[in-house]
Design brief:
The structure holds 2 protein chains of 2 kinds. By secondary structure, chain A is mostly beta strands. Chain A has strands spanning 4-7, 10-13, 19-25, 33-38, 45-49, 53-54, 62-67, 70-75, 85-90, 97-98, 102-106. The chains are: A mainly beta, B mainly beta.
């Protein structure tokens, strides 16, 4: 199975900050990576797919980059509604696997 | 509006069985792969299973292979997950999720959007 490792596991940031989350795959996955946002008690929501494609309706302050084994999710200017947990997910090979999550907290 | 509504979650004893359902509306159900993803309390997301558009092909996580069965009824626009030989570690909220792109697309079938609200399965004596 492909292991997905996210870092950091949590980050404290202020409104307006630039936040970067990293996801590393245990083997190359080309650009088969997505990012999801999950708020407490809610289902996850897709933000980015194919490593860098922004899902329709997602604010442009979210961006994704990377290919192969190393990927990043960047929030260019953190907004109050962005405090949540973020997960990466690979779709290169079954079983599909998620990273452990990164919780973005208010500083 | 695309909508997915799960049901069937319950408290069940170890070794027991349960069938989860996911009622879909607002899109042509048979045109999309469907997935189940679970989340144990306070933990991360774990993909469980997927089924293609006509129900012919399926995949499972190793942790559930041989115990869980995914299926779909396209006439009823409903996805199912049969859970057998349940263990304490199967306790989780189970989400159904539609593939982002339809079966005719060359990609996007293993991204999840949208998701249902989830149904809680608790395995305990």
């Amino acid at each position: 199975d492909i292991q997905m490792t996210q870092s950091p596991s949590s980050v404290s940031a202020s409104v307006g900050d630039r936040v970067t989350i990293t996801c590393r795959a245990s083997q190359g996955i080309s650009s088969w990576l997505a990012w999801y946002q999950q708020k407490p008690g809610k289902a996850p929501k897709i933000l980015i797919y194919d490593a860098s494609r922004l899902q329709s309706g997602v604010p442009s302050r979210f961006s994704g980059s990377g290919s192969g084994t190393d990927f990043t999710l960047t929030i260019s200017s953190l907004q109050p509604e962005d405090f949540a947990t973020y997960y990466c997910q690979q779709a290169n090979t079954f079983p599909l696997t998620f990273g452990g999550g990164t919780k973005v907290e208010i500083k | 509006e695309v909508q997915l509504v799960e049901s069937g979650g319950a408290l069940v004893q170890p070794g027991g069985s349960l069938r989860l359902s996911c009622a879909a509306s607002g899109f042509t159900f048979s045109n999309y792969w469907m997935h189940w993803v679970r989340q144990a309390p306070g933990k991360g997301l774990v993909w469980v299973s997927r089924v293609d558009g006509d129900g012919t092909n399926t995949n499972y996580a190793d942790s559930v292979k041989g115990r869980f069965t995914i299926s779909r009824d396209n006439a009823k626009n409903t996805l199912y997950l049969q859970l057998n030989s349940l263990r304490a570690e199967d306790t989780a909220v189970y989400y159904c999720a539609r593939a982002l792109q339809p079966v005719t697309s060359s990609s996007g079938k293993n991204w999840f959007d949208p998701w249902g609200q989830g149904t809680l399965v608790t395995v305990s004596s």
